[in-house]
Specification:
With 326 residues, the protein is an alpha+beta fold. It has helices at 24-27, 44-54, 58-65, 124-133, 142-155, 157-176, 183-212, 220-286, 301-323, and strands spanning 4-11, 15-19, 33-40, 73-77, 82-91, 100-108, 112-117.
Length: 326
């Protein structure tokens, strides 16, 4: 995939414009501006070039180059005045497609924000609109841009969890409706919830670091806004736990209903086995052919044996029917 680098500049807290990457060197020293560089699928060479331009710490560059999914975290590089934040966004799943999680790495400095991802960026339109709506907060520096980016990423989880919630309700109704094949759907949803929980939990921990530590980039005013992001992550964690509890209960109900179905079949088989056992016993008695059996030469003996079988079988059938075994 070809790398895409988009540079946006916020001037005087109001005017946002895209500029070519070649202008970065001059913009870095211009006072009163904020720079947002969005990088999609960069090569190591392109990352190295950005690292030289923004003076990125070598450890931060290593984290940006890792292709494998990283654990959400916050790393501070105090001497360089940089903060690295690894966060995630979510795309709601559809029929046949599970919930997708995508990593976005953010590096915030005094007057810049770098967002690096593999093709699923922070929504640029939403970010631009929110920054324009609150121009007075541009004076907070890159900390406010970082807040907007984190808030946009966290907000993507709500529609994703809403979609999972609808699937939870559907599978619950299917189980209660007697669908014996819904167990696979339960485990599929549980797997997705576990994947989401594995990133939401560390994201919440990362927000604690941003809120409680003086990182040199996030101002006190920006931290107040970050508290709102933290509250959203708490809500997400609680929602995930609720869905997992519902699925666990649904799985128990499914197991109980399956056990009841097995018990019903076992009772039916036991009842019919008892009925046929009596019939077999009667036919076995009259099939012994002893010489001195009274009914052996009786004219109505055959009819008597069949009638006795029918009466005994019918009586047992009525008895088991009243007990609910049939």
């Amino acid at each position: 995939m070809r790398a895409v680098i988009v540079v946006r500049v916020l001037r005087q807290g109001r005017k946002i414009e895209e500029v070519p990457t070649s202008d970065l060197a001059g913009l870095r020293t211009e006072p009163g501006i904020l720079i947002w560089v969005d990088v999609s699928s960069p090569t190591p060479e392109e990352l190295a070039s950005l690292g030289r331009e923004f003076g990125l710490h070598e450890v931060a560059l290593e984290d940006l180059e890792i292709d494998e999914r990283q654990r959400p975290k916050v790393e501070q590089y105090q001497d360089e005045g940089q903060v690295l934040v690894v966060f995630y966004g979510a795309l709601a799943g559809t029929a046949g497609r599970p919930t997708k999680l995508y990593e976005v790495d953010l590096v915030a400095g005094q007057n810049y924000l770098l967002s690096v991802h593999g093709g699923a960026p922070v929504d640029p339109g939403a970010m631009v609109r929110r920054v324009k709506d609150r121009p007075e907060l541009a004076s907070e520096g890159a900390g406010y841009l970082l807040y907007v980016a984190l808030d946009e990423l966290v907000d993507t989880f709500f529609p994703a969890l809403d979609a999972l919630g609808e699937r939870v309700v559907e599978v619950e109704e299917a189980i209660l409706g007697g669908d014996v094949d819904a167990e696979g759907q339960i485990f599929a949803i549980r797997k997705e919830l576990i994947a989401v929980r594995r990133v939401v939990g560390p994201m919440r921990d990362a927000m604690v670091v941003l809120l409680r530590r003086d990182l040199g980039v996030v101002s006190r005013q920006a931290q107040r806004y970050l508290q709102d992001v933290y509250d959203h992550l708490i809500r997400l964690s609680e929602t995930i736990e609720d869905y997992q509890d519902v699925l666990a209960g649904t799985l128990d109900v499914n197991a109980t209903m399956a056990s009841n179905r097995v018990n019903t079949v076992a009772r039916n088989l036991a009842a019919y086995a008892a009925i046929f056992a009596v019939v077999t016993m009667i036919s076995g008695i009259y099939g012994m052919n002893f010489e001195h059996m009274p009914e052996l030469r009786w004219e109505f003996g055959y009819g008597w044996a069949l009638g006795l079988m029918a009466v005994c079988a019918g009586a047992l059938w009525v008895y088991f029917k009243r007990k609910g075994w049939l």
